[in-house]
């Protein structure tokens, strides 16, 4: 924060004439008793005129963001000083809205303590509520008889908490088991539920649709041998559920509560860069959470790497279990009609590439479409509209994704 102090020769104005306005009175008081640099709140621009033979001399004090104030002196001389303009500087805790420092994103995490967190542009403050201070947060939680998690308490002390996030947590932590328990002790689920209350509905929709489609496909494929090969079906189903949770959870928006610990050096820089990225390419901007085109582009490739890693690991586990069961059965009862055992590493690699490229692209688009529908006036008036859209678009995506995976498997020689 830059300041400028008046020249020593201007610090005494015994017979100054000042207008009746409060702002001019404050300016004159400042000239009589200069404040220390740390107490100044605005950048100042001071202009004094040349020495003049006239008995009345005038200088101007211009405060950034306010009107120019004129003060006249009837006695005494002034020596002109050229206009000195000091541009304001922003320190590391003020004014930033990029959310990169891990503050309470969606809740003013990049804003300074002196910032008026409850006044966001574009109606964002109305949508997410004011930024509550520590005393207000503790008063509300104590009135409900709820003890907040440590990270939420620390966030309330440093950056404040959005009212909507506090109220959502107070409501959700009292839910039936196991949701209430997970809201208290699983921050990953809690933060996603605070940002998107329909998160669990989307996860459940994905699991139910994928499981039903997989079951139907398995019954059609195995026919009368379905129950004889039930172990293979169960292994595929369990791995599929894990993949479904990862597919939805990795792209879901989440509330960034508090300031995460960041390591030093190269690892710390990578962690900070990843933390500043949106959760998905089309994540909506919120108070304290703004994203550039470069960040959104980087998110696509970053999530592709995560999806690919999940696909490869789940492919190893799922295909490994299936191969073990197939080999165990064939060691007991081997027949000429048995299909070859799929290659383990090649199958896992196919899963990794498929999730990184196909699934990543399709689910990014789905998240963007769901966000548009949820933000529409119709969905806000009639919430079941958004829920119906989620069911329809995810059902169509599962059908298309399953057909595409079969094509990829045949082309790669895995099946």
UniProtKB/TrEMBL annotation:
| InterPro entries per UniProt | RETICULATA-related
Principal location class: plastid
Family membership: Belongs to the RETICULATA family.
**Record's compositionally biased regions (Basic and acidic residues):** 112-122
By what name is this protein known? Protein RETICULATA-RELATED 1
Indicate the transmembrane segments per the record. Answer: 232-255, 305-325
Instruction: Please provide the Gene Ontology terms (biological process) for this protein.
Output: plant organ development
Compositional bias (Gly residues) spans?
93-111
In its UniProt entry, the species of origin is given as Pyrus ussuriensis x Pyrus communis
Q: Print the keywords alphabetically.
A: Chloroplast, Membrane, Plastid, Transit peptide, Transmembrane, Transmembrane helix
Q: Which is a Pfam family this sequence falls into?
A: RETICULATA-like
Where is the region Disordered?
A: 93-127
Q: Does the entry feature the keyword Protease, yes or no?
A: no
Location of this chain's protein in the cell: Plastid, Chloroplast membrane
Annotated Gene Ontology cellular component terms? chloroplast inner membrane
How does this protein sit in the membrane?
Answer: Multi-pass membrane protein
